[in-house]
Amino acid sequence: MRSSLKTFLAAEDGAVTVDWVVLTAAVVGMAFAVMVIFNNGPANLATTFATKVGAISVKAGD
């Protein structure tokens, strides 16, 4: 029993897969964080732009 446990703990099979899973989870987590942080930026910019453009008066030509 001890021999098979030592062999199991010393084995490195699947270590690359675990690394890729952890790295992929980190990338997905960072992408989600960026989406949450910058979520209101474009909406605020569009509102400000619409307000500024709406305040411009157009003079009728002669």
Describe this structure in words.
This protein has about 60 residues and is mostly helical. The relative contact order is 0.06. The chain has one domain. It starts with a helix and ends in an 8-residue tail after the last helix. It is about 75% helix and about 0% strand. The chain is rod-shaped and about 100 Å long. The mean pLDDT is about 90. The chain contains three helices and no strands. It comes from Actibacterium naphthalenivorans. Keywords: Membrane, Transmembrane, Transmembrane helix. This is Flp pilus assembly protein, pilin Flp.
Number of helices: 3
Count the domains: 1
Secondary structure: helix percent = over 70%
Provide the β-strand percentage band: under 5%
Largest sheet: number of strands, sense, barrel closure: none
Mean pLDDT: 88
Q: Order of helices and strands, N to C?
A: HHH
Number of strands: 0
Structural class: mainly alpha
Overall outline? rod-shaped
Low-confidence stretches: none
Global Rg: 28 Å
> What distance separates the N and C termini?
99 Å
Transmembrane segments: 20-38
Protein name: Flp pilus assembly protein, pilin Flp
Keywords: Membrane, Transmembrane, Transmembrane helix
Organism: Actibacterium naphthalenivorans
